[in-house]
Amino acid sequence: MLKAIGASLGIAIGRALVIREEAVEINESKVKDSKIELDRFNNALQESITQLQKVVEGVKEKLGDEKAEIFEAHLCMLEDPEFIGSIQKKIENDKFNAEYALQTVAQETAAIFEQMENEYMTERAADIRDVSKRVLNVLMGIKVASIADIQEECIIVAKDLTPSDTAQIDKAKVLAFVTEIGGKTAHTSIIARSLELPAVVGAGKGIREIKDGDLIVVDGEEGIVIINPDKATLKDYEKRREDFIEAKHQLLKYATMKSTTVDGKSVELAANIGSAEDLESVLKNGAEAIGLFRTEFLYMSKDALPTEEEQYNEYKSVVEKMDGKPVIIRTLDIGGDKKLNYLPMDEEMNPFLGYRAIRLCLDRTDIFITQLRALVRASAHGKLKIMFPMICNIQELRTAKKILEQCKTELKSEGVVFDEKLEVGIMIEIPSAAIISDILAKEVDFFSIGTNDLIQYTTAVDRMNEKISYLYDFYHPAVLRLIKTVIDNGHKAGITVNMCGEMAGDTNLIPVLLGFGLDEFSMSASSILRARKTITNSSFEECKKLSVPVLSFGDADEIKGYIKTSFKA
What we know:
It contains 23 helices and 16 strands. It has 569 residues and is α/β, with parallel strands linked by helices. The protein has an 8-stranded mixed beta sheet. Helix 20 (510-516) crosses helix 22. The model has no long low-confidence stretch (mean pLDDT 88).
């Protein structure tokens, strides 16, 4: 049995199709005519661009525009003057053969990403290798068998799967996949979850024990791969697979239910989205609101800052499709691990603690004002709410609100209609904001607790650092105490308190958060039905009573043990 990273939920049982990459040896050589060699490279580049354009169209049709952005980013790499220019210079000036020039620059660029102390950025090295391999195959005349051509049911086993490979998977044929390397935030894993395809990644060299045609079991929740299971194990996992499918089917009945406990306490179950493309899943799963619209993805999908009109149309589209349901839109949260190629920023020792989110917006008020005008205009089309991220003190909040008021005054003078009662809230994701939440609550309409960063900052743990990831814990007593403090302070001031981090979808913690008095839980759309099942089978009064002792424990394991034995939703 192999134990690795469960990247996408589900259980699959099938025959292994082992994909082994043939080693391609590239030798360094000098060419006599660099112009001919440059033409050869440029022709291969154009052919690769054409191939990728076809991939983009195919992915848009199968998975939607948002997932196609991965491959549009690959296209951008092949059109990046710095990356491509470096290859062309090695050919033209140094007279290297095209294959060697391409491989050298690609390896250097990928190495830069791999050295970054951030899992998301590290895994972008795979994208560099993917696009470079495509061009190299064209240059060398290598015909690559497409995963899209698989004819029989199988489970793919490979050292790695590029995003291009994963996007071509036919769910009718491919039951699951297992890779030697990779992580949960890799684009390949993201696409697997979009396809709802069980996946285990980062299984290490142990996958080399798997032979073509071996019967294997893949458990995408536990991150387990079993090779040639015995009859008893096989029977057990066949039952687990049936149970998983049945449980998934049974959850559909919760799509039209209200998020109300057995004793009548109603809360709101909302979804986190990155673009209008996510709304199909949001509506299918019965979300009662959008609790977090991450607007940075709109910026990251562009080659330049999106205009007021572009932003207005995107926000308007989401608000209208939600048909009167609340939509909380977070203002630009760029910085940390989220960069814009067209917005250069100085290198920082601690980017997660640096020039990002509201700090950037209050400095670059031109960017901020453009977004705020678009948001205010879009508020005329539904129940839009504005949320400022990474507020750490009262001055930042007041300055942001002042700029918003200036935008509203300007738009009113221009005769633009908008929601005069537009609500404004903040994310509580910095400990300083949690501690003074009683003060901040007097100046906003709602709080939303951003647990992803709140946990990171409270425990001083980089959540992308695999070596210390065990310290990043939803159940840390300090985190739970801060959350309860924020909820109590919000309610004393008469405002609602929401949560939009991953913690909101943790079914073990939902009864505790209910007991604390949380008003809204916002999560990925795929988690909503499980969360609603938990809520509708819980007693609010019982949750309140049982949540009190949680705050007295000094250790996360104690809290987990108490929750496991005390809450029976």
